[in-house]
Amino acid sequence: MTEGDLRTNVNAMDLLPRLAYFGDVPVRSISAGPAVLYRLFEGWPADRLLLIEEAASAPDPSNQLPGVPTLRHRVIHQRLIRSRLAGLYGSWLLLTCGRHARPLARILKESGTEAVVSLGHGYCWIPAARAARIAGLPFHLIVHDHWRDSIAVAPRLSARADSLFLAAYRQAASRLVISPAMEEKYRRAYGRPGTVLYPSRGRDALNLADPPSKPLRPGNVVFAYAGGVSRWTRRALASFADATAPLGVRLRVYQGISVESLRAEGYRGGSIDIAPFIPAAELHRDLAARVDAMYLPMSFDPSDRSNVEVCFPSKLADYTVPGLPILVHAPPYGTASRWAAENDPAAETVTVEDPGALAAAVKRLVDDPNRRSLLARRALELGRQFFSPERAFGAFRNAIAPRD
């Protein structure tokens, strides 16, 4: 980069608006939603960014954005939202959390904020949108998961919830959604276009020119799962392990779960190894050194369909870093299986829940070195194409930056 290029880049950063983020999900360099936000915001100048955290999130300087001023404002009591009273408490939040808009608007004005960003998850987008309107500031909305699945309200308040989200979505100066399927669905439902903003890998991600060169170890083939764990995920991991153990496959799970929790979901064997959670850059190196392929499941449960159709697994941004073949196990309507089909050959894909079909797909990968090599190279190519931090930040900057 020449001195002139550097000066131009610095001047461009000076033109970025002073941004404030307020949402249910904290900005953290850990995993899932917090990491997606962290990677998005880490390119923004620290002196032009304010994080207003929901006070229920635990502060941890080791995984927060360095040098970014952070305030805390309580809207949600986590003990209640996670209790048996979640539906009742969620209904109360829906009706009352808008009262936080005025104190938030005062913070925005006093801090010199020029634009407001929130996440369409949970409840905090309601006061964030209202605060932006009160302060006369542009409001920008990011949506990673289907917003309706992230709140718990009484059935009689469903129309009220829909009305609030419709208003916020239409108010937004930009709507940054996680997948083409979400953009299409929301455009039809809410009458406004969105910008697809795929998740990105971190700026410190491993940058491989070629897949790692290592022989497959017969009888000790290692697949890996790295990401969040819910009940359906534990069922998927248990089913994968039991279906593939006869093939000499082990499953390495990078998540702080217990074998007992997997046995509660049907796991019968002994082919799962639990690895502690580690930062992404270290994870990439460990995967490249220890693992032969990645396993990416999505839920087949009909109750999860609305989210599976539109959410996009952020783990793909990291799965494509270490140059390993990927096995996607998702319904045909899932965003991961659709992405794989649209970018074929992107992954070995199984679109039925049948453990036999899953085992057959694993056997095809184990037996076919040419297929493994092709998918490993495609993982690297597609990762650079879809999930680079430069691409994500460019789309984000273009959406937020003021128009002439």
Q: Which key terms come to mind for this protein?
A:
single chain; 404 residues; alpha/beta; Rossmann fold; 2 domains; 7-stranded parallel β-sheet; 6-stranded parallel β-sheet; 17 helices; disordered N terminus
Structural account:
With 404 residues, the protein is α/β, with parallel strands linked by helices. It folds into 2 domains: 3-200 and 388-400, Glycogen Phosphorylase B (Rossmann fold), CATH 3.40.50.2000; 221-387, Rossmann fold, CATH 3.40.50. It is 43% helix and 15% strand. It is built from 17 helices and 13 strands. It has helices at residues 3-14, 32-41, 78-81, 86-96, 101-110, 125-135, 158-171, 180-190, 231-244, 259-263, 280-290, 305-308, 315-319, 335-342, 355-367, 369-387, 389-400; strands at 19-23, 49-54, 70-73, 115-119, 139-143, 174-177, 195-196, 221-226, 249-254, 272-275, 293-297, 326-329, 348-350. The strands form 2 sheets. Strands 3-2-1-4-5-6-7 form a 7-stranded parallel sheet, with helices on both faces. Strands 10-9-8-11-12-13 form a 6-stranded parallel sheet, sandwiched between helices. The longest helix has 19 residues, at 369-387. The two termini are 27 Å apart.
